[in-house]
Amino acid sequence: ARFSLAGINEEIDGAIGKLVKAAACPVVYMSMKGNFLVSPQWNKKPKRKVPVSGEFEQIVTKEQAETLPADEIQKIIESHFHYNEYEWQYENKIEIKSKYRAHNIHKILYRCPACGKEHMTSAYTKIRCGECGKEYEMDVYGRLHALAGETEFPSVPDWYLWERSLVRTEVREGNYRFEDEVRVEKMMNTKDGFVPIGKAKLTHDLNGFTLHGMMDDGTELTLKRAPETMRSCHIEYNYRKRGDALELCTLSDTYFVYPLNEYNPLTKLHFATEEISEYVKEQKKMTRDHHESV
Questions:
Q1: What pLDDT score does 4 carry?
Q2: C-alpha pair distances (Å), 251 with each of 63, 116, 192, 229, 254
Q3: Whole-angstrom distance, CA of residue 211 vs CA of residue 230
Q4: pTM for the whole thing?
Q5: What is the DSSP letter of 10?
Q6: What percent of the chain has pLDDT over 70?
Q7: How far is Cα 101 from Cα 104, in angstroms, rounded to an integer?
Q8: What average pLDDT does the structure give for the chain?
């Protein structure tokens, strides 16, 4: 898991540590084992038979809350948000015999480690590159094995993090850009939920997100979210069987947008949102430091 506070400005960095410091109270951390593997985001159903347990641990004492600086408390808390469910499964030899154990995993493992193309497909226990044809199979312990040739990433998280590293490079070299036509749904109320309102053009680059188009009722929709306002983004794979969706919101409205033409872009959009936010934050800090030193 990666610790992030989606959609919150950089000014709140360290807010949890400051809250604990102000409350002067202990912090208890609960870690769930197995719950992700029961129903992973990329294929929630059918649920897999996996033992689920929870562990509680006090990670900040009352004395530490009173005496440690807020930034140190923040670091302690954030360090506990790193957990590898697949490693836990493998180390404890938890068998998942479901024939769907790798079904739809291409939603997160979208780039082929053999040829580098972003056209993976998956079904049942296998994942396959639609460009070069290389195939991998997931065993009952969650490990991946190439059916021919080298197994570049036996570990799902390692493959996932490799993809993130490539997006980070794209962002920092100025080569990242996404553009597609999207279907737009707007949250109306708790009864009706998200309702389709039209189509628009979505772009994402170092300037953040821009959504623009004429809606079905003749009104113009323009939404801009700068990188500073989105540290991460909320994505949903096949949201209520209506497709892969990305959430964009303002202070008053919430939208789900569904890319219509680009193949399987959601995970990369998620990576890029976080990497752009971090990069822009670093650039601004360098600019401030330079001005202060002059």
A1: 36
A2: 38, 39, 20, 11, 8
A3: 15
A4: 0.88
A5: G
A6: 95
A7: 9
A8: 92
User: If you ran DSSP here, which 8-state letter would residue 27 be given?
Assistant: E
The per-residue pLDDT for range 99-130, each reduced to its tens digit, is 999 999 999 999 999 999 999 999 999 999 99
| Cβ partners under 8 Å of residue 177, min gap 6 | 203, 204, 205
Question: Of 4, 3, 14, which Cα lies nearest the Cα of 72?
Answer: 14
The count of other CB atoms within 10 Å of the CB of residue 40 is: 20
Proportion of the chain in helix, strand, coil states, percent, rounded to 5: 30, 30, 40
Helices and strands counted in the chain (H then E) = 7, 13
Q: Quick one: average pLDDT of 74-82?
A: 90
Rounded Cα distance, 92 and 170, in Å: 37
Cα separation, 156 vs 161, in Å, equals: 9
pLDDT (average), residues 79-83: 87
183: closest CA among 236, 241, 266, 245? Answer: 245
CA distances from 102 to 52, 106, 190, 192 (A): 19, 8, 34, 33
Give me the mean pLDDT over the 88-106 stretch: 96
H helices of the chain, where? 15-23, 35-38, 62-67, 70-79, 85-91, 156-172, 266-293
The pair of three-digit structure tokens given for residue 272, joined into one six-digit string: 């890029």
